[in-house]
Amino acid sequence: MSFRKASEHGRRNTLFSFFLFCLIIGQGFPALAKARSCRQIFADRDMHQVHLKNSYNVGRGLKDYITNFGEAFETRLLGLSSHGRWLDAGAGEALALRQYMALRKTDAAQVVAVAVKKPEHVPNEGYSYFEGRYVEEIPARELGRFEIITDVYGPLFYSSRADLVLAKYLEILKPEGSIFISGYYGAKSRDNLRIVSPRGETLDLIEWLKSIDGLIVQDVPERKGAYFISVRPETVPSVPKLELIEQTFSGVIPQRVFRVSD
Ligand SMILES: C[S@@+](CC[C@H](N)C(=O)[O-])C[C@H]1O[C@@H](n2cnc3c(N)ncnc32)[C@H](O)[C@@H]1O
Question: Using CA atoms, how far apart are residues 57 and 64, in angstroms rounded to an integer?
C-alpha cells in the first residue's frame, strides 16, 4: 500500500472511530444525545469541565452542582430573581457561579464566592469573591443574606470549626432559604467527620444536623452524600459548640472527631 493510500486509510479509520465515539457518548448520556452535533457535545462537555488541582477538585461546574443537588436546587436557582442572592462557600474556581451568570446574563441573581484560596487567573468580574479568609470568620454584615447557600466539598468538610461554619450559614440564610451541602457525609461511610454526643453516641454530620432543633435536613433523592437544609418557620436554631478532639490527615480529606462541648 502506498504512503498516500495508507494515510487515507488511517484518516478514514480515525474518522470512523471518532463517529463511533460520539455515538457511544450520545447513547450513554441521554441529555447529550439531544445535542445537535459532535461539536456541541464537546462544547457541553467542556462546560462541564472538572479539573483536579492542588490534589482536590476546585473546578466543578454548574452541571455538576445541578447533578449533585437535583431538581430542588435547579428549581430554586431558576426561581431566583435578579434581587435574589446565591453564596457558594468553598467556591474554588467559582465555575458554577460564573456559568450561571453567563447563562442568565442580565437577569442573573447576585452571586458571591468565598474560598480560603482563590485559584490564580480566576476572573471575578460581575460578582464578589471573598478570598483569604475562612467563611466562618467573615462578618455577616460583609457577606449579606442569601436565598441559596451551597457547600460542595467545602468549608463544612474542611474546617476544624464545623459548628462555626454552620452557625455562619444560618446567620446569613434568609428565612425561606436553603443550604445545599454535598460531600462524603452520611452513614459514617467515610468516617471523615464524627461527632460524639453528650450521651456518648457517635454521629456522622447528617445525624448531628438532624439532632439540632429547628433544622429540616432532607436527602436529595437518589444522590448519595447530598442534602438540603432549611429552617422551620418561627424557630432560631442554636448550633451546639463542638470541640475538636482528634484529627488525622491521610489523603485529601481530613478525618476529624468532635465532641459536643455545651
Ligand atoms: C475541594 S474544593 C471545592 C471547590 C468547589 N466547591 C468545587 O466543587 O469545585 C474546597 C474549597 O473550599 C475552600 N475552603 C475550605 N475550607 C474553607 C473555609 N473554612 N472557608 C472558606 N473556604 C474554604 C477551599 O479554598 C476550596 O476553594
Answer: 12
